[in-house]
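TEACHING EXERCISE
Course module: macromolecular assemblies
Task: Read the component lines below, then compare them to the predicted structure of the full complex.
Student: A.B.
Group: 4
Components provided:
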Amino acid sequence: MAASISSDVKLLGFRASPFVNRAQFALNLKSVNYEFIVEDTDNKSELLLKSNPVHKKVPVLIHGDKPVNESLVIVQYIDETWSDGPSILPESPYDRAIARFWAAYIDDKLFGSIMKWLTDAKDEESKAAVLEKFSESLGLLEEAFVKSSHGKGFFGGENPGYLDIALGCHLGWLKVVEMDAKVKLLDETKTPALAEWSHRIQSHEAVKGTLPEPDELLSAL
Amino acid sequence: MAASISSDVKLLGFRASPFVNRAQFALNLKSVNYEFIVEDTDNKSELLLKSNPVHKKVPVLIHGDKPVNESLVIVQYIDETWSDGPSILPESPYDRAIARFWAAYIDDKLFGSIMKWLTDAKDEESKAAVLEKFSESLGLLEEAFVKSSHGKGFFGGENPGYLDIALGCHLGWLKVVEMDAKVKLLDETKTPALAEWSHRIQSHEAVKGTLPEPDELLSAL
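Instructor-supplied answer key:
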């Protein structure tokens, strides 16, 4: 598909942020060209402060002169604005509700566990507790994948959709935790469908090259 | 407008939950008849546990045999399913993004402050800190109202929409805090537009009689 002419699209962020990657995946899926403006968290730009005065956080999508904040809001905005590209949200209201439910779950529970591992879990007991939470969350997401994908390759069916983007963006940091914990979180035995999906989504053209490798993420810590 | 025939719609919840009220407002706005099934938080029903096995929380909307969880997901589901009724989300993708952004803000910051007041803020210093947060949040929401309402009566313009529902459901507990703190949070001087809006939304037919009064809420504590 030819890329849309969208030189008026800017994305403020940095590569190590899964939420920025999420916006990137959505733009890539829709073949929207955009200018990536790298933000320094220690020295936030005037453009960022003006565009997201409430949270002062990336990602910010600026379309024309209009800023959109919060990664899942951005993904929905992209889906609704470039509606001629492949659909990101499912079509039926019920499937959309299921996708929105799990996207919120991912950011609350799964990303919560990633943050806990990286910042709080220092002793063996708290590490074990976080790993237990990962196991619970990924088990539930395995079930959600099986139900949503209808035997096809992605949560969205034959093509990546909302949940592929919502979960896929966390795979880089999940690998960092796996390396650090020396355990396999996405496990061929316990979460076989998700383990296979994770290879599939990472080699998809909308994700490949955009999702940072663990080395790059570690250097951002 | 005649009520839709929707005897297959059930809402699991209890009146003191603002998130349950939110789903009720949306159903009322769309004139959808529903069965309200009262849940006891100390003794959750099998239907609730089966319908929301992940969070085990109300509200749950059951449409036919399909459960939908999480209040903002439910409101969007209602908007998309009964699409012949008045629109809840705005029409343009940008206005929808703005509405989704502020709805998330309301549940994070404003409801966060309500919870802090009710559970954590015991000494004068922490009470003052929470009141300061209320002032900040309501100031931002006043600005958002002025921008979104375009001089009309509601966030949604002439009729209540997504943010009217999202914020309106918290007005009962906000009154409880006002009574307890002996301060006016929605203040005619500091937040004149929101103060006026709060009277308008509470007397709207979709909200009136559904939003509990402070006495009823206090007895639920």
